[in-house]
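Morning!

This is the sequence you dropped in the shared folder:
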Amino acid sequence: MTNTQRVSIDKQHPAAYKALIALSAEADAGATAAGLDPLLVELVRIRTSQINGCAFCLRMHTRDALKKGENPDRIAVLPAWEEADYFSATDRAALRLAEAITRVSDGHVGDEDYTAAAAELTEDQISAVSWLVTVMNAFNRVAITSRYHVAG
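The structure's back. Tokens below.
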């Protein structure tokens, strides 16, 4: 971490940040309408933030998940979700898609990842997960760029 003073881009351009918040609300509504479990929604946000290394969003969404009743063990093993029996087929499909979208620079969202998601998720769920991840990636970038403070 550096001591360089950063512009807080959410405060510098509040209308843009408010638009991102509105987009997030739409993504949440889409996830609910698609029947995604609220705990899975938080796991998708946490996993996206883990990949991006966003401490601020990790803390926020881990707390949100725990408040909603998420099992701490599932959060603890989330980086290794493929190796753990804690996750349903739906969870696995959503997490795989979330990782592919977040790591888009590693080869785009490959057919293998998309096909695996489509085998378990409805079209509405694929779209909902995609929007959740897109918005979470944007929030991660806002927090990381602005160096949102995270303290114990």
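Headline: The chain has a mean pLDDT of 95.

More detail when I'm at my desk.
O.
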